[in-house]
Amino acid sequence: MAGFSGLFRLNRRWKWSSKKGDPVRPSAAQYLPSRIIQRIAHYMAIAENSYTGEDRNKYNQVSRSSRALVGVSRSWRVAAISLFYRHFVLDINCSAMWISPSRRMVHKDCNGISDSVKHLAKSVYLTAPFDGVFNGRVLQVLNGNSYTDAVFPEVSVLRLNFYSGTTVPVQETSDFHLHIEEFCAYIRRLFPRATEYRFQVTSFTDTDDSQMVGWLLGGLIQNSGCSVAEYTHSSMGVQVSGLIGVVGLTHISIQDRACMEDCIELVRRNATTLVSVDLGIFDTLDFLPRLITDDDGETIVYPKLLKLFIHVNLLPKSLDASFPALKDLSYTTGGLHIANVLSSPS
């Protein structure tokens, strides 16, 4: 009640007359709490997506209708602005472009981004060329655009998409370990509170650098303190064998063909930390026996695994020994896709 009384006191301070002698109070809706305004914007975006057939939420884009909320009142503007600058793209190639999803702000120099906006940012989609990480050029670009001492203190989700269409020249790989280490430290300094690292490789064409990919992924996870470390395999150019040394992954999703043995080994090595595993693309291979027992016949336990998508020839009567926490099992068998067999209605 105290909140509502304060709301009405605020209204009493702002009075005007539509006609002489006829005082009118501003609508209390002008001073709704920010969370309610943001929910209104969220549902406006859903309605617009349904009407237009577009899925802006997939790319964290701000809908046109949501932008109109800034004109309602000052409190609505403040709440809506926080939505506009919640998610960003940091595109590092020849320059470092910091782009808001509403496309209202594109900066190549970090000094152009105000401190207030830096505090509004909650998640970042970072895209960069692999060879630029391995030879140190990505850090040169960041430093050249004033990111050296920058901090984005509220970013909790970091999506990293790395791509490369060419082999890293041999003469540029002599110090790649040092460059990888410096890049990982730089990212942790830019986003000190990032607790989710979601890692994806796309458009990668050279298998010789797969080991470097593994070192980079391991370096990003190590000492990051992240609670979510996700790897999505979506490029045939990267050999999973190069990633086997990576530990601490919580989510593994194989979305492109890869060596079955390498995938099994990667999952096994991360058994104690995995929360979700998607191996559904292998719809003709029975992974399950190899996942739940090691080469000596001992049971492998996945104590935190909640979600599993896999192909099986024959599903065991019980999976409790290997997957004591499993809540969501989806699998293919005999050409059928059977989903969420363990999920209970909420």
Could you characterize what this model shows?
It is a single chain. The protein has 346 residues and is α/β, with parallel strands linked by helices. The protein contains 11 helices and 14 strands. The longest helix is centred in the first third of the chain and has 19 residues, at 34-52. The protein is globular, with a radius of gyration of 25 Å. The two termini are 32 Å apart. Mean pLDDT is 76; it is low at 1-18 and 48-63.
Summarize this structure as a short list of keywords or feature phrases:
14 strands; disordered N terminus; 346 residues; globular; 31% helix; alpha/beta; 11 helices
Arithmetic mean of pLDDT: 76
User: What pattern of helices and strands is seen along the backbone?
Assistant: HEEHHHEEEHEHHEHEHEEHEHEEE
Would you tell me the structural class of the helices and strands? alpha/beta
Strand proportion, as a percent range, falls in: 15-25%
Coarse morphology: globular
The parts where pLDDT drops under 50 for at least 5 residues are 1-18, 48-63
Rg computed from alpha carbons, rounded to a whole number of angstroms: 25 Å
User: Percent of residues in helical segments?
Assistant: 25-40%
Number of helical segments with 4 or more residues: 11
Number of domains: 3
Task: Output the strand order for the largest sheet.
Answer: 5-4-3-6-7-8-9-10-11-12-13-14
Largest sheet: 12 strands, mixed
**Termini Cα gap:** 32 Å
Compute the number of strand runs: 14
